[in-house]
Amino acid sequence: MSRLEEYALVGDMHTAALVGRDGSVDWLCLPRFDGGACFAALLGTPDNGCWRIGVPGARVRRRYRPGTLILETTFETDEGRATLVDFMPPRANDERSDLVRLVQGEAGHVTFEVDLALRFVYGQVVPWVRRRDFGLTAVAGPDALEIRTPLAMTGRDFRHRATFTVGAGERMPFVLSWHPSHRSPPRPLDPWRSLESTERWWQRWSGRCAYDGPDREAVSSSLTVLKALTYSPTGGIVAAPTTSLPECLGGVRNWDYRFCWLRDATFTLYALLISGYTEEACAWREWLLRAVAGEPSQLQMIYGLAGERLLPEIELPWLLGYEGSTPVRIGNAAHTQYQLDVYGEVMDCFHVAVRSGIDPSNDAWAVQRAVLDFLESGWRRPDEGLWEVRGRRREFTHSKVMAWVAFDRAVKAVERFGCEGDAERWRRVRAEIHADVCASAYDADRQTFVQSYGSQDLDAALLMIPMVGFLPPSDRRVAGTVAAIQQHLVRDGFVQRYSPREDLDGLPPGEGAFLACTFWLADNLVMLGQTEEARRIFDRLLGIRNDVGLLSEEYDPAAGRLLGNYPQAFSHVALVNTAHNLAAGSTGPAQRRAESSGARR
Fold first, then answer.
1. What is the location of CATH 2.70.98.10 in the chain?
2. Per-residue pLDDT, 598
3. Which of 99, 258, 527, 550 fits as disulfide partner to 176, beta carbons 3.0 to 4.6 Å?
């Protein structure tokens, strides 16, 4: 099983594939991010589906073509050099999806091996494969695939294999096309013209990046990942294209992240807006409005790509799990949890949109007012918190702070934007929440806020306190909290979310450091004026990206490897925002978000 660092991403804004350094596609869900995988070797074995085009024993180097998501993997041997080009052309609907793989000889002669195992339903179903003049077709239930290539492959034991040699200037194309099995196959794709048009598309998109600071390559790369994880028909952004990649190798903290989380909303909006991608920011705002519309008490913290609410969690026992980490899950039971913080996140996202010049929406304000009506009593309820604990509900400090954010942004909507509402009543609730948090969540002896009321635990989510404007960075309680987190939650330079244990989150302990939280620490240090230390943390984070710039959700400093679902949108969003904070200082997104509040207590 390859380490996560060995995988690169290609995608078409509907779904995405992971391609290993050995040239093996070990993960691809069709036709959407949340569809059934036809290549699932990532979570099992090659017999669960994979497609390798590679050169055993070759020296390998990889890159994305500048400004694109077109992957080039160059294989070099003593006899020659050749490059495998992988990409997925952007598409407009769910009627087809194409994965294009092109081999181009560059010097001497190089012999490639092809190993193709087509499976459906996450590696469980072997399709009916037939040989055609153009290659192969495969059908099982609702899914159909075509593999178009001039290379003849030999079928045996439900796999197809071949070898071929390319010399300098010679080429070998492969095109995999999915379509609904009840419809006619799509028109054949010209792979070489598609390569040219896909490169132009991505270069036009990346050329819009407005960031021009010292970390432009890292920012542009992360924004490309964010675009690749956007489901273009709706504007929803998936947390990751994978499921069940473990937070601890061999453990059970394995979740499906192929959905859209509200907790990411405001950070994502800032990352897009400050980087010049207003169109994408508007699409994300509109997705959010459609998803949360309805009865506020039924607000979820996670939705499907189009705003679907039912995301039942089931286990797939036929998959062995990544490095034996079981169970493998699809769906996510966290969608049934009560998470108070998402109400504040929704309010803040709409506030930032208007503040940033996105046309205000009467529908959005109506939804916001309904949220406030519910939250006037709802903020007192314990919840599962930002980290979706599966233990008992608690009065999490971060959740209360985000409830405060909801009322603070409502007051600002009236004061600054002329929205209609009872600002005086909302001010009273805002003040009540603020006083409650300061009285119940601050440990004066240890000079730090704590994870939940009555707790002794720390939580990296407390780093949000100055970033949302609940308290200014100059407040001694903020400095004390940051210092406590540095002392107790930082391991080998990386921040853990909290100290996991079964009585807290209902799961066995053990997970990596959470990368977004480490970026948040850097953001806090920028706000505290400790820019040099923030820079060191940021450079450390840049240093753990893989060779094509990708980050996962977590990192194991001891083993020196990425953990969790991959690549992770939230990690890349945090990278973009921290780069802007370091470059802009007092005008960066952290300070701007904090200044959007009215509290300076």
1. 4-182
2. 55
3. 99
Structural class in CATH, domain 208-595: mainly alpha
Instruction: Tell me the residue ranges of DSSP E strands in 197-283.
Output: 230-231, 236-237, 260-261
Q: What's the pLDDT at 591?
A: 83
515: three-class secondary structure by DSSP: helix
Distance (Å, whole) CA 255 – CA 455: 27
DSSP lists the bridge partners of residue 430 as: none
Q: What tokens were used for 339?
A: 């998470």
Q: Are 44 and 52 in contact (CB under 8 A)?
A: no
CATH fold of 4-182, please? Beta-galactosidase; Chain A, domain 5 (2.70.98)
User: What are the phi and psi torsion angles at 20 (to 5°)?
Assistant: -80, 165
Cα first-last separation, the chain: 53
Which two tokens mark 46? 């090659």
As a whole number of angstroms, the distance between CA 112 and CA 170 comes to 13
Rounded Cα distance between 588 and 72, Å, is 34
Q: What is the pLDDT at residue 505?
A: 67
Entry pTM:
0.96
Type of residue numbered 349: C
Amino acid making up residue 426: W
- Map tokens 């979740």 to a residue: 255
Q: What tokens does 263 get?
A: 């907790």
Helix, strand, or coil (residue 418): coil
pLDDT of residue 192: 97
User: In residues, how long is the chain?
Assistant: 601
In our burial notation (b when 16+ CB lie closer than 10 A, e otherwise), range 552-589 reads bbbbbeeeebbbbbbbbbbbbbbbbbbbbbbbbeeebb
Q: Which two tokens stand for residue 192?
A: 């070489």
Q: Would you call 362 helix, strand, or coil by DSSP?
A: helix
pLDDT score of 361: 77
pLDDT at site 510: 72
- In the chain, ranges of CATH 1.50.10.10 domains: 208-595
Q: From CA 441, how far away is CA 102, in angstroms rounded?
A: 58
Locus of tokens 């997970």: 511
The pair of three-digit structure tokens given for residue 584, joined into one six-digit string = 């802009």
Measured distance CA(178)–CA(337) in Å, rounded: 35
| Regions in the chain scoring below 50 on pLDDT | 599-601
Q: Could you give the angle at the alpha carbon of 343 between the alpha carbons of 340 and 348, nearest 5°?
A: 135
Residue 124 is predicted with a pLDDT of 95
CA–CA separation, 277 and 47 (whole Å): 41
Fill in the DSSP letter of residue 257.
Answer: -
Query: Cis peptide leading into 142, omega within 30 of 0?
Result: no
The pLDDT score that the predictor gives to residue 600 is 43
Residue 104 main-chain phi, psi, to 5 deg = -130, 120
Q: How far is CA 263 from the centre of its chain?
A: 12
Q: How many CB atoms are closer than 10 A to CB 111?
A: 16
pLDDT of residue 601: 44
